[in-house]
Amino acid sequence: MAVSKFLAKRKPGRFKQRKHVKGVGGAAPSRGVIALFLLPAFLLYTIFMIWPLVQSFYFSFFEFKGLARGDFVGLQNFRELFTRYPLNEQLPRAFLHNVYFFVGTMLIQNTLGLLLAKLLYAPRWGKRFFQTVYTMPYLISALVVGYLWSLMLNPLFGPINRTLKTIGLSAWARPWLGDPATALTAIILVNAWQWVGFPMLLFSAGLANIGEDLREAARIDGATSWKLFWYIELPLLLPVIGIVTVLTFIGNFNVFGIVWAMGGVNGEPGGSTDVLGLVFYRTAFRGGVDAFGLASALAVLMFIFIFGVSMFMVGRFRRWEESLQ
Amino acid sequence: MSAPRTSQAYRDKLANIGIAVLLWGYAAIVLGPLLLVVSNALRPTREIFKNPLGLPTSPSFESFVKAWEKANFHVYFLNSLIITVASVLLATAVSALAGYMLGRYKFKGSVFLSAYFLAGLMLPFRLAIVPLFLLLNDLGLIDNRLGLILVYAATGIPFSIFILSSFFRQLPQELSEAARIDGANEMVIFGRIMLPLVRPALATVVVFQFVPLWNDFFFPLVLLRSTDKWTLPVGMTRFFGEFQTDWSTLFAGIIITTLPLIIIFLLATKQIIAGLTAGIGK
Q: By C-alpha distance, which of A272, A233, A221, A230 is closest to A96?
């Protein structure tokens, strides 16, 4: 689901092409018929998706008492987010954890995804098998993946530590999720385990789009396979890298289920795995009587940040692509 | 002359072995934990604790029965099934109608409407939970499966319209012209002629909505209260607390939760990959 998000915007050429396809351009039916076809989707989508999003902005300026909306309080809710204990400590900490999550995922998951795509690009036995295997964990609920790996990483009975001890690496065995120093990194690795098939598929599609004649020309000019990758393929993959980066960013700043399963609602141990998604949930549903106002304000800030940074990234990558052409 | 060629061939061979080791190595990292889940679900917890990597000596399905009956999985599973199927059907039905109109015709506002629906693909929708909660509360739909179905259906619309309208757009005009001359109205052209032709796209749309909805944790966590309405992911949170020390049952629960998706994946690998890479490639 995630991918097409950006592609829709990014590949105007494909849409232009389709305009010339025969099917389109017949005389439009009457207004009544148009409405009959469009209204069900329009109403459902507007009432349950767009309208609540719009309201979030509006509600952030009001004081709430439980479920009841009270007075207009201006920026009061936003101020509370940064001044009220413990939010004022949890919020910046969670934000930094999300940044770490994003950087770690880019370095580990997406680099590995690119490597796997490149290794699987050449025709080889079992290509389809490997692709299928690597994509499989994506199917499992993030929450279930988190629970599954918390069993794997269990300090007493977990297979990971047991294996390390068996092969003589006892020194490496540790309570991965119980130690604040390793917990968040462990979650990033588990998340990468689940999602690596996704960048791999995108990079595979990207590599397949690069013309074979271009590679042939480079080879005739004496380019080694490393040079071919570095100077030809990588620059041409820039649009895909852009898409992967933006989608990773959005995904990582919305991360929720996997962290809940591995660190609980408070991001244990000691808040070392707390992320914005958990803070938002706690603010809205485990907070005080004015929780809904504060949560709306937090939603607005997260919305602006996530949307703003993704738009910035899209623009940045587009300019980068243009400068390479 | 022959010496460099041999060393080149030798290097290629070495590289190939290296690549194979990497590919199989990573496949083992992916499959290992999954196989361990299956193998340990068939063994009693006592044995798992003794040796977590052992194979089942006398496989037993006791843990599955326990998870299904005692841990309430028969309730969670049914709820997940009802909610997911209903949401997917609803979203696909309304999206097929709208996608047809937007893909086939140009009319006043059609460009704007396409963009309006497409925008939903990029919105971090979870952040709207507070107004959504209040809306459903006003409608009496908190702790109600119908509420969750309506919300889920709404979230599926942007992707479904995006895929379906581009498929409808590619169908040749002659088909509908001929039917129209025969006196068929728009609804008949849509239902009898056009819809059957976009079946592959319908499959992609259905599979692609099913997976994230089946797995979703956030919305049922917030919108459902009573355990008899819970879906599998929310049920999981209670299950993992209650059966903390009964690993065999925990593994069985993981399998029950994931099995429908594995079946779908095996039946529809093509649709899943098509959905994941929609827009890239040929």
A: A272
